[in-house]
Amino acid sequence: MAPNDSAETNGGTRGTVAGRRKAARYIVPVAVAGVAAATIGLVPALASSGDPDLPKISAQELIEKIAASDTEQLSGTVKISTDLGIPSLGGLAGSFAPGGAGGDGGKGGSSADPQERMTELASGTHTLRIAADGPDKQRLSILDNASEYSLIHNGDQVWAYDSKSDQAYHATEKQAGEDAGRDAGKKSGHPVPEGVPTTPKALAEQVLKAAGPTTSVTVDGTAQVAGRDAYKLVVKPRQSGSTIGSVTVAVDAESGVPLKFTLLPAAGGKAVVDAGFTEVDFAKPDASLFTFTPPKGTEVTEADDAKAQHKADKGLGDLIPGADAAQLGAGEPGAKNTKVIGEGWSAIAEITTPGATGLPSKASGDVPAEAQQFLDALGDKVTGKFGSGTVFKTRLVNALMTDDGKVYVGAVTKDALVKAANSAS
Questions:
Q1: Which among 105, 141, 201, 237 could disulfide-bond with 242, CB atoms 3.0 to 4.6 Å apart, if both were Cys?
Q2: Whether the Cβ atoms of residue 15 and residue 385 lie closer than 8 Å to each other
Q3: Residues 6 or more apart from 308 whose CB is under 8 A from it?
Protein backbone atom coordinates (compact mmCIF):
# COMPACT_ATOMS: atom_id res chain seq x y z
CA MET A 1 0.00 0.00 0.00
CA ALA A 2 1.47 3.31 -1.03
CA PRO A 3 1.58 6.02 1.64
CA ASN A 4 -0.87 8.87 1.37
CA ASP A 5 -0.60 12.46 2.43
CA SER A 6 -2.23 13.10 5.80
CA ALA A 7 -2.28 16.85 5.61
CA GLU A 8 -5.12 18.21 7.73
CA THR A 9 -7.54 20.83 6.55
CA ASN A 10 -8.51 23.37 9.20
CA GLY A 11 -11.63 24.60 7.53
CA GLY A 12 -9.66 24.91 4.35
CA THR A 13 -11.84 22.91 1.99
CA ARG A 14 -12.16 26.01 -0.11
CA GLY A 15 -13.55 26.69 -3.54
CA THR A 16 -16.25 24.28 -4.65
CA VAL A 17 -16.73 22.64 -1.28
CA ALA A 18 -16.85 25.86 0.74
CA GLY A 19 -19.75 27.08 -1.35
CA ARG A 20 -21.76 24.01 -0.52
CA ARG A 21 -21.70 24.21 3.26
CA LYS A 22 -25.01 24.50 5.01
CA ALA A 23 -25.99 24.93 8.64
CA ALA A 24 -26.39 21.68 10.54
CA ARG A 25 -29.91 20.52 11.36
CA TYR A 26 -31.03 19.65 14.83
CA ILE A 27 -33.86 17.35 15.78
CA VAL A 28 -35.67 16.60 19.02
CA PRO A 29 -35.37 13.06 20.41
CA VAL A 30 -38.84 12.00 19.44
CA ALA A 31 -37.88 12.70 15.84
CA VAL A 32 -34.74 10.67 16.34
CA ALA A 33 -36.99 7.82 17.46
CA GLY A 34 -39.08 8.28 14.33
CA VAL A 35 -38.57 9.76 10.88
CA ALA A 36 -35.46 11.76 11.69
CA ALA A 37 -33.61 8.72 12.92
CA ALA A 38 -33.97 7.44 9.42
CA THR A 39 -31.90 10.58 8.42
CA ILE A 40 -29.04 8.27 9.03
CA GLY A 41 -28.49 5.42 6.67
CA LEU A 42 -26.18 2.62 7.94
CA VAL A 43 -23.81 -1.03 7.43
CA PRO A 44 -21.39 -3.58 8.72
CA ALA A 45 -17.86 -3.26 7.44
CA LEU A 46 -17.40 -4.87 4.07
CA ALA A 47 -14.81 -7.60 3.63
CA SER A 48 -11.59 -6.35 2.07
CA SER A 49 -9.66 -8.30 -0.53
CA GLY A 50 -6.48 -6.33 0.12
CA ASP A 51 -5.58 -2.64 0.22
CA PRO A 52 -4.88 -1.40 -3.32
CA ASP A 53 -1.67 0.46 -4.24
CA LEU A 54 -2.81 3.91 -5.39
CA PRO A 55 -1.04 7.20 -6.17
CA LYS A 56 -0.66 9.61 -3.25
CA ILE A 57 -3.40 12.18 -2.79
CA SER A 58 -3.93 14.91 -0.21
CA ALA A 59 -7.10 15.40 1.81
CA GLN A 60 -7.77 18.65 -0.05
CA GLU A 61 -7.46 16.93 -3.41
CA LEU A 62 -9.69 14.04 -2.36
CA ILE A 63 -12.44 16.36 -1.11
CA GLU A 64 -12.26 18.29 -4.37
CA LYS A 65 -12.52 14.99 -6.24
CA ILE A 66 -15.75 14.18 -4.38
CA ALA A 67 -17.15 17.65 -5.08
CA ALA A 68 -16.23 17.47 -8.77
CA SER A 69 -17.74 14.02 -9.31
CA ASP A 70 -20.38 14.22 -12.02
CA THR A 71 -21.52 10.61 -11.87
CA GLU A 72 -25.27 10.57 -12.41
CA GLN A 73 -25.78 7.00 -13.60
CA LEU A 74 -25.31 3.99 -11.34
CA SER A 75 -26.98 0.97 -9.88
CA GLY A 76 -26.06 -1.39 -7.09
CA THR A 77 -26.75 -2.89 -3.72
CA VAL A 78 -26.19 -1.02 -0.47
CA LYS A 79 -26.09 -2.74 2.89
CA ILE A 80 -27.14 -0.52 5.77
CA SER A 81 -26.93 -0.91 9.54
CA THR A 82 -27.53 1.47 12.42
CA ASP A 83 -27.18 1.30 16.17
CA LEU A 84 -28.47 4.54 17.70
CA GLY A 85 -28.99 2.90 21.08
CA ILE A 86 -32.68 3.77 21.16
CA PRO A 87 -34.61 1.64 23.68
CA SER A 88 -37.24 -0.70 22.28
CA LEU A 89 -40.67 0.87 21.85
CA GLY A 90 -42.15 -2.26 23.46
CA GLY A 91 -45.92 -1.94 23.77
CA LEU A 92 -45.84 1.43 22.02
CA ALA A 93 -44.69 -0.07 18.75
CA GLY A 94 -48.16 -1.28 17.82
CA SER A 95 -49.74 2.02 18.75
CA PHE A 96 -47.55 4.26 16.66
CA ALA A 97 -46.42 2.04 13.82
CA PRO A 98 -48.11 2.45 10.45
CA GLY A 99 -51.44 0.72 10.57
CA GLY A 100 -51.26 0.42 14.35
CA ALA A 101 -53.91 1.20 16.85
CA GLY A 102 -52.70 4.67 17.71
CA GLY A 103 -54.05 7.95 16.53
CA ASP A 104 -56.71 7.08 14.02
CA GLY A 105 -58.62 4.41 15.80
CA GLY A 106 -56.67 1.60 14.20
CA LYS A 107 -57.26 2.59 10.59
CA GLY A 108 -53.62 3.50 10.00
CA GLY A 109 -52.14 5.09 6.89
CA SER A 110 -50.85 3.47 3.73
CA SER A 111 -48.00 1.03 4.36
CA ALA A 112 -46.45 2.42 1.17
CA ASP A 113 -46.22 6.02 2.45
CA PRO A 114 -42.51 7.01 2.37
CA GLN A 115 -42.88 9.09 5.53
CA GLU A 116 -43.84 5.91 7.33
CA ARG A 117 -41.63 3.30 5.70
CA MET A 118 -38.31 5.15 5.81
CA THR A 119 -38.38 4.88 9.61
CA GLU A 120 -37.35 1.26 9.12
CA LEU A 121 -33.80 2.47 8.51
CA ALA A 122 -33.63 3.80 12.07
CA SER A 123 -32.45 0.48 13.43
CA GLY A 124 -31.09 -2.90 12.45
CA THR A 125 -29.55 -4.04 9.19
CA HIS A 126 -31.16 -3.56 5.79
CA THR A 127 -30.32 -4.28 2.18
CA LEU A 128 -31.18 -1.60 -0.38
CA ARG A 129 -31.10 -1.81 -4.14
CA ILE A 130 -30.64 1.57 -5.79
CA ALA A 131 -30.51 2.92 -9.33
CA ALA A 132 -30.14 6.43 -10.75
CA ASP A 133 -30.15 7.91 -14.24
CA GLY A 134 -29.69 11.64 -13.84
CA PRO A 135 -31.68 14.00 -11.60
CA ASP A 136 -35.09 12.89 -12.92
CA LYS A 137 -34.89 9.12 -12.50
CA GLN A 138 -34.14 7.28 -9.26
CA ARG A 139 -35.27 4.06 -7.67
CA LEU A 140 -34.69 2.77 -4.15
CA SER A 141 -35.89 -0.61 -2.91
CA ILE A 142 -35.78 -2.03 0.61
CA LEU A 143 -35.46 -5.80 0.32
CA ASP A 144 -37.08 -8.17 2.78
CA ASN A 145 -37.08 -11.96 2.93
CA ALA A 146 -40.17 -12.41 0.81
CA SER A 147 -41.20 -8.85 -0.08
CA GLU A 148 -39.90 -5.56 -1.40
CA TYR A 149 -40.70 -1.90 -0.81
CA SER A 150 -39.79 0.42 -3.68
CA LEU A 151 -39.69 4.18 -4.27
CA ILE A 152 -39.63 5.23 -7.92
CA HIS A 153 -39.06 8.77 -9.18
CA ASN A 154 -39.50 9.38 -12.91
CA GLY A 155 -39.92 12.93 -14.13
CA ASP A 156 -42.74 14.56 -12.20
CA GLN A 157 -44.13 11.25 -10.94
CA VAL A 158 -43.29 9.56 -7.64
CA TRP A 159 -44.56 6.08 -6.84
CA ALA A 160 -44.03 3.87 -3.82
CA TYR A 161 -45.12 0.24 -3.66
CA ASP A 162 -45.22 -2.29 -0.82
CA SER A 163 -45.44 -5.78 -2.30
CA LYS A 164 -46.25 -7.35 1.07
CA SER A 165 -49.49 -5.39 1.60
CA ASP A 166 -50.12 -4.68 -2.10
CA GLN A 167 -50.47 -0.97 -1.32
CA ALA A 168 -49.11 1.92 -3.38
CA TYR A 169 -48.51 5.64 -2.79
CA HIS A 170 -48.57 8.21 -5.60
CA ALA A 171 -47.55 11.86 -5.76
CA THR A 172 -46.53 14.42 -8.32
CA GLU A 173 -43.12 16.01 -7.93
CA LYS A 174 -44.60 19.21 -6.46
CA GLN A 175 -46.60 17.25 -3.89
CA ALA A 176 -43.63 15.11 -2.90
CA GLY A 177 -41.32 18.09 -2.52
CA GLU A 178 -43.83 20.29 -0.66
CA ASP A 179 -41.95 23.36 -1.91
CA ALA A 180 -40.56 23.32 -5.43
CA GLY A 181 -38.38 26.35 -4.71
CA ARG A 182 -36.81 25.08 -1.47
CA ASP A 183 -33.50 24.13 -3.12
CA ALA A 184 -32.74 26.45 -6.00
CA GLY A 185 -31.76 24.62 -9.15
CA LYS A 186 -32.65 21.20 -7.74
CA LYS A 187 -35.61 18.93 -8.19
CA SER A 188 -37.70 18.85 -5.04
CA GLY A 189 -39.58 15.65 -5.75
CA HIS A 190 -36.95 13.09 -4.80
CA PRO A 191 -38.84 9.98 -3.67
CA VAL A 192 -37.04 9.84 -0.32
CA PRO A 193 -38.35 12.31 2.30
CA GLU A 194 -36.14 15.37 2.70
CA GLY A 195 -33.26 14.91 5.12
CA VAL A 196 -33.15 11.12 4.76
CA PRO A 197 -29.82 10.21 3.11
CA THR A 198 -29.71 6.59 2.02
CA THR A 199 -26.40 6.36 0.14
CA PRO A 200 -22.76 6.81 1.18
CA LYS A 201 -22.57 9.87 -1.09
CA ALA A 202 -25.48 11.65 0.59
CA LEU A 203 -24.07 10.87 4.04
CA ALA A 204 -20.57 12.06 3.09
CA GLU A 205 -21.90 15.32 1.66
CA GLN A 206 -23.66 16.14 4.93
CA VAL A 207 -20.46 15.64 6.91
CA LEU A 208 -18.22 17.57 4.52
CA LYS A 209 -20.61 20.53 4.49
CA ALA A 210 -19.94 20.89 8.20
CA ALA A 211 -16.14 20.70 7.86
CA GLY A 212 -14.42 23.85 9.15
CA PRO A 213 -11.86 25.07 11.69
CA THR A 214 -13.30 22.61 14.20
CA THR A 215 -12.53 19.65 11.93
CA SER A 216 -9.52 17.50 11.10
CA VAL A 217 -9.59 15.87 7.65
CA THR A 218 -6.92 13.38 6.56
CA VAL A 219 -6.31 10.61 4.04
CA ASP A 220 -5.64 7.34 5.84
CA GLY A 221 -4.66 4.70 3.34
CA THR A 222 -6.71 2.79 0.81
CA ALA A 223 -9.35 0.07 0.70
CA GLN A 224 -11.35 -2.00 -1.75
CA VAL A 225 -15.13 -1.66 -1.62
CA ALA A 226 -17.53 -3.57 -3.86
CA GLY A 227 -14.55 -4.65 -5.96
CA ARG A 228 -13.35 -1.08 -6.59
CA ASP A 229 -10.19 0.70 -5.42
CA ALA A 230 -10.83 3.52 -2.97
CA TYR A 231 -9.10 6.09 -0.78
CA LYS A 232 -10.10 6.42 2.88
CA LEU A 233 -10.95 9.96 3.98
CA VAL A 234 -11.10 10.35 7.77
CA VAL A 235 -12.98 13.27 9.36
CA LYS A 236 -12.64 13.95 13.10
CA PRO A 237 -13.94 16.69 15.42
CA ARG A 238 -11.25 18.85 17.04
CA GLN A 239 -13.64 19.90 19.81
CA SER A 240 -14.46 18.07 23.00
CA GLY A 241 -18.01 17.29 23.98
CA SER A 242 -19.11 15.76 20.66
CA THR A 243 -20.63 12.28 20.56
CA ILE A 244 -18.96 11.72 17.19
CA GLY A 245 -15.53 10.09 17.29
CA SER A 246 -14.74 9.90 13.58
CA VAL A 247 -16.24 9.49 10.14
CA THR A 248 -14.48 7.42 7.47
CA VAL A 249 -15.51 7.75 3.82
CA ALA A 250 -14.19 5.30 1.22
CA VAL A 251 -13.98 7.28 -2.04
CA ASP A 252 -13.84 5.58 -5.43
CA ALA A 253 -10.38 6.34 -6.83
CA GLU A 254 -11.65 6.65 -10.39
CA SER A 255 -15.01 8.43 -10.15
CA GLY A 256 -14.80 10.25 -6.81
CA VAL A 257 -18.09 8.68 -5.68
CA PRO A 258 -18.23 7.77 -1.97
CA LEU A 259 -18.67 3.99 -1.74
CA LYS A 260 -18.75 3.48 2.01
CA PHE A 261 -19.51 5.61 5.07
CA THR A 262 -18.72 4.70 8.68
CA LEU A 263 -19.48 6.85 11.72
CA LEU A 264 -17.86 5.79 15.01
CA PRO A 265 -19.00 7.19 18.36
CA ALA A 266 -16.62 9.03 20.67
CA ALA A 267 -17.58 6.63 23.46
CA GLY A 268 -16.23 3.66 21.50
CA GLY A 269 -17.91 0.45 20.42
CA LYS A 270 -19.34 -0.53 17.08
CA ALA A 271 -20.33 1.96 14.42
CA VAL A 272 -23.43 4.05 14.91
CA VAL A 273 -23.75 4.38 11.14
CA ASP A 274 -22.16 2.07 8.60
CA ALA A 275 -23.34 2.16 4.98
CA GLY A 276 -21.64 0.80 1.92
CA PHE A 277 -22.04 -0.70 -1.52
CA THR A 278 -21.65 -4.45 -1.81
CA GLU A 279 -22.15 -4.19 -5.57
CA VAL A 280 -21.97 -1.12 -7.81
CA ASP A 281 -22.15 -0.50 -11.56
CA PHE A 282 -21.68 2.92 -13.18
CA ALA A 283 -23.33 1.91 -16.46
CA LYS A 284 -26.70 3.37 -17.51
CA PRO A 285 -29.48 1.45 -15.69
CA ASP A 286 -32.26 -0.20 -17.66
CA ALA A 287 -35.09 2.28 -18.33
CA SER A 288 -37.67 -0.24 -17.10
CA LEU A 289 -36.43 0.26 -13.53
CA PHE A 290 -38.02 3.71 -13.47
CA THR A 291 -41.47 2.78 -14.74
CA PHE A 292 -44.28 1.59 -12.50
CA THR A 293 -47.90 0.60 -12.98
CA PRO A 294 -49.85 -0.58 -9.92
CA PRO A 295 -50.76 -4.26 -10.20
CA LYS A 296 -54.47 -4.99 -10.58
CA GLY A 297 -56.22 -4.78 -7.23
CA THR A 298 -53.56 -2.61 -5.57
CA GLU A 299 -54.84 -0.08 -3.05
CA VAL A 300 -53.47 3.32 -4.12
CA THR A 301 -53.18 6.30 -1.76
CA GLU A 302 -52.74 9.76 -3.31
CA ALA A 303 -50.39 12.24 -1.63
CA ASP A 304 -53.14 14.72 -0.74
CA ASP A 305 -55.07 12.00 1.08
CA ALA A 306 -51.92 10.92 2.94
CA LYS A 307 -51.31 14.50 4.11
CA ALA A 308 -54.79 14.66 5.57
CA GLN A 309 -54.19 11.33 7.32
CA HIS A 310 -50.89 12.54 8.82
CA LYS A 311 -52.64 15.57 10.29
CA ALA A 312 -55.22 13.32 11.92
CA ASP A 313 -52.67 10.84 13.27
CA LYS A 314 -51.52 10.95 16.89
CA GLY A 315 -48.08 9.68 17.84
CA LEU A 316 -45.11 10.36 20.08
CA GLY A 317 -45.23 14.01 19.06
CA ASP A 318 -48.49 14.36 20.97
CA LEU A 319 -46.81 13.14 24.16
CA ILE A 320 -44.31 16.01 24.09
CA PRO A 321 -45.96 19.39 23.50
CA GLY A 322 -44.35 21.36 20.69
CA ALA A 323 -42.18 18.46 19.50
CA ASP A 324 -43.42 18.63 15.92
CA ALA A 325 -43.05 22.40 15.79
CA ALA A 326 -39.59 22.14 17.30
CA GLN A 327 -38.55 19.66 14.65
CA LEU A 328 -39.70 21.97 11.90
CA GLY A 329 -38.11 25.01 13.47
CA ALA A 330 -34.79 23.28 13.91
CA GLY A 331 -34.53 22.78 10.17
CA GLU A 332 -33.75 26.47 9.66
CA PRO A 333 -31.07 28.22 11.74
CA GLY A 334 -33.00 31.47 11.84
CA ALA A 335 -36.37 29.94 12.58
CA LYS A 336 -38.55 31.55 15.22
CA ASN A 337 -38.00 30.22 18.74
CA THR A 338 -34.71 28.58 17.72
CA LYS A 339 -31.12 29.67 18.19
CA VAL A 340 -27.75 27.93 18.00
CA ILE A 341 -25.26 27.85 20.88
CA GLY A 342 -21.64 27.21 19.93
CA GLU A 343 -20.38 26.05 16.53
CA GLY A 344 -19.07 23.09 14.64
CA TRP A 345 -19.40 19.60 16.08
CA SER A 346 -20.35 20.87 19.53
CA ALA A 347 -23.10 23.23 18.32
CA ILE A 348 -26.38 22.94 20.24
CA ALA A 349 -29.81 24.10 19.11
CA GLU A 350 -31.88 25.85 21.78
CA ILE A 351 -35.59 25.58 20.99
CA THR A 352 -38.44 27.16 22.92
CA THR A 353 -41.53 25.00 22.57
CA PRO A 354 -44.86 26.72 21.87
CA GLY A 355 -46.52 27.65 25.16
CA ALA A 356 -43.22 27.00 27.00
CA THR A 357 -44.54 23.77 28.45
CA GLY A 358 -42.37 20.92 29.64
CA LEU A 359 -42.90 17.19 29.51
CA PRO A 360 -46.30 15.82 30.49
CA SER A 361 -46.29 13.22 33.22
CA LYS A 362 -48.28 10.19 34.30
CA ALA A 363 -49.17 12.00 37.51
CA SER A 364 -50.93 14.70 35.52
CA GLY A 365 -52.92 12.09 33.63
CA ASP A 366 -51.54 13.28 30.28
CA VAL A 367 -49.48 10.18 29.48
CA PRO A 368 -50.45 6.49 29.44
CA ALA A 369 -48.42 4.30 31.81
CA GLU A 370 -46.65 2.45 28.98
CA ALA A 371 -45.74 5.73 27.29
CA GLN A 372 -44.32 7.07 30.56
CA GLN A 373 -42.27 3.87 30.90
CA PHE A 374 -40.80 4.46 27.46
CA LEU A 375 -39.97 8.11 28.22
CA ASP A 376 -38.36 7.14 31.54
CA ALA A 377 -36.23 4.49 29.83
CA LEU A 378 -35.06 6.96 27.22
CA GLY A 379 -34.21 9.83 29.57
CA ASP A 380 -32.14 10.84 32.60
CA LYS A 381 -33.35 13.43 35.11
CA VAL A 382 -30.89 16.34 35.50
CA THR A 383 -30.77 19.61 37.45
CA GLY A 384 -28.73 22.78 37.21
CA LYS A 385 -28.85 26.54 37.21
CA PHE A 386 -31.58 26.26 34.56
CA GLY A 387 -33.80 24.25 36.93
CA SER A 388 -34.61 20.63 36.14
CA GLY A 389 -35.30 18.56 33.07
CA THR A 390 -34.79 15.27 31.26
CA VAL A 391 -31.95 14.28 28.92
CA PHE A 392 -33.04 11.94 26.13
CA LYS A 393 -30.17 9.84 24.85
CA THR A 394 -29.11 8.01 21.74
CA ARG A 395 -25.56 7.04 20.76
CA LEU A 396 -25.44 10.02 18.40
CA VAL A 397 -27.97 12.78 19.15
CA ASN A 398 -28.90 13.81 22.71
CA ALA A 399 -31.50 16.31 23.85
CA LEU A 400 -32.31 18.05 27.12
CA MET A 401 -35.93 19.06 27.67
CA THR A 402 -36.30 21.40 30.61
CA ASP A 403 -39.40 21.49 32.76
CA ASP A 404 -40.06 25.07 31.65
CA GLY A 405 -40.38 24.08 27.99
CA LYS A 406 -36.96 24.53 26.39
CA VAL A 407 -35.12 21.95 24.30
CA TYR A 408 -31.33 21.76 23.89
CA VAL A 409 -30.32 19.25 21.21
CA GLY A 410 -27.16 18.25 19.37
CA ALA A 411 -24.62 15.51 18.69
CA VAL A 412 -23.07 16.28 22.08
CA THR A 413 -22.76 14.70 25.52
CA LYS A 414 -25.21 15.09 28.39
CA ASP A 415 -22.72 17.32 30.25
CA ALA A 416 -22.47 19.62 27.23
CA LEU A 417 -26.26 20.00 27.12
CA VAL A 418 -26.48 20.83 30.84
CA LYS A 419 -23.64 23.36 30.45
CA ALA A 420 -25.46 25.01 27.52
CA ALA A 421 -28.73 25.19 29.47
CA ASN A 422 -26.93 26.72 32.46
CA SER A 423 -25.21 29.32 30.30
CA ALA A 424 -28.51 30.31 28.71
CA SER A 425 -30.24 30.79 32.09
A1: 237
A2: no
A3: none
Tell me how far the alpha carbon of residue 142 is from its chain's centroid.
16
Which residue segments constitute the domains of the chain, with CATH numbers given?
Answer: 40-87+112-197+209-311 (2.50.20.10)
CA distance 93 to 287: 38
- Three-state SS at 86: coil
pLDDT in tens, 108-167: 567 888 887 887 887 889 999 999 999 899 999 999 888 999 999 999 999 999 999 999
CA distances to 25, 48, 157 from 139, rounded to whole Å, are 26, 28, 12
Measured CA to CA, the distance from residue 73 to residue 294 in angstroms comes to: 25
Q: How far apart are CA 369 and CA 374, in angstroms?
A: 9
* Cβ neighbour number for residue 229 with a 10 Å cutoff: 18
**Three-state SS letters, 242-284:** ECEEEEEEEEECCCCCEEEEEEEECCCCCCCEEEEEEEEECCC
φ/ψ (deg, to 5) at 267? -80, -5
CA distance 218 to 52: 18
Q: Write out pLDDT tens, residues 173-217.
A: 765 444 433 333 333 334 454 444 567 888 888 888 777 888 999
Residue type, 10: N
Task: Count CA atoms within 13 Å of residue 39 on its CB side.
Answer: 22
